[in-house]
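In this supplementary section we document a worked example of the pipeline. Step one takes a protein sequence of length 115 as its only input; no multiple sequence alignment statistics are reported here. Step two produces a three-dimensional model, which step three serialises into structure tokens for compact storage. The input and output of this example are shown verbatim.
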Amino acid sequence: MRHRAPATELTPPFDGSAAAARQFLHAFGSGSDHFPQTENVKSEPATVHRVLSMIMAYAMKDGRLAVNPAAGVSLPRVREPEKRYLTERPVAELADAVGEEYRLIVLFLAYTGLR
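The serialised model returned by step three reads:
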């Protein structure tokens, strides 16, 4: 069973400033102890920012905040994964493995770039 720290240990209180929103999002995107990286990390900071921004917008409508601290916060840079391509031998092995029925489709897709 995984140990979960109390919520007070995870993050300091959010003071509603743009600096606090920026710090939260950058900590989330960099894979700190509080926000470990997952397979879906590419989209997570943007998703968290969108949700945080919507919450702050609602607080503005409700009169609790004068400005949205999440507005204009730059998100951590997204690292694109290295693209991997099959060479001639793996393409041939794949075409052989799928059988005669799909061989032509695999070869067509591999060599025309239609993916």
